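Budget justification aside, the reviewers requested a transparent look at the raw inputs and outputs of the sequence design task funded under Objective 1. We therefore reproduce one unedited record. The lines immediately below are the structure tokens for a 185-residue chain.
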């Protein structure tokens, strides 16, 4: 598991290597200087959508934010026990993500196992460049995309423009487990 504190350190190192001030990067990412400082110092755990925005502002991949090594790789296998948590349940937005391809450098997609706890009553609204696909493995969820709401149950899949505001909540008393694939051009 990649420690959340390492993500902030990686962001800071990448920012400094580009000779960006906190203010410069915050402006490029559309964040406040204070929020970005908290992220770098591991006092805030941003959602993946915010990490994507920061990566884009830095001109790096999400993989680099996570500190993944660059190797010449054409195929990678991540065993179930090798998954890394990208965010913890309750870490500011309630979802948890387990990486499914962290060994593959410079990937164009970010596949993960997404878990939404059954007790989630609200969610941050996510919005980022690209496209996203969510396949529900367990449970049922209410998925909100723009002004539309969809009920998705185990086996259902949604593919959508992720630049439109979106979020999901459990539809009943069960955790929701999904395969989530984010593509950022």
């Amino acid at each position: 598991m990649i420690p959340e504190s390492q993500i902030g350190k990686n962001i800071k190192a990448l920012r400094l290597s580009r000779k960006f001030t906190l203010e410069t990067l915050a402006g490029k990412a559309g964040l406040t200087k204070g929020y970005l400082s908290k992220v770098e110092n591991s006092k805030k755990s941003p959602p993946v959508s915010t990490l994507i925005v920061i990566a884009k502002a830095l001109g790096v991949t999400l993989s680099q934010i996570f500190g993944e090594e660059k190797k010449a790789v054409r195929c990678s296998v991540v065993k179930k026990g090798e998954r890394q948590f990208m965010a913890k349940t309750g870490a500011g937005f309630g979802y948890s993500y387990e990486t499914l391809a962290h060994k593959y450098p410079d990937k164009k997609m970010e596949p993960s196992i997404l878990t939404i706890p059954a007790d989630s009553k609200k969610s941050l609204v996510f919005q980022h460049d690209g496209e996203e696909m969510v396949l529900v493995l367990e449970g049922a969820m209410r998925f909100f995309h723009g002004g539309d709401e969809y009920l998705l149950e185990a086996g259902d899949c949604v593919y959508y423009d992720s630049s439109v505001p979106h979020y999901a909540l459990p539809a009943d008393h069960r955790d929701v487990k999904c395969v989530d694939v984010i593509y950022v051009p």
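The chain has five helices and nine strands. The radius of gyration is 16 Å. Computational costs for records of this kind are itemized in the attached budget.
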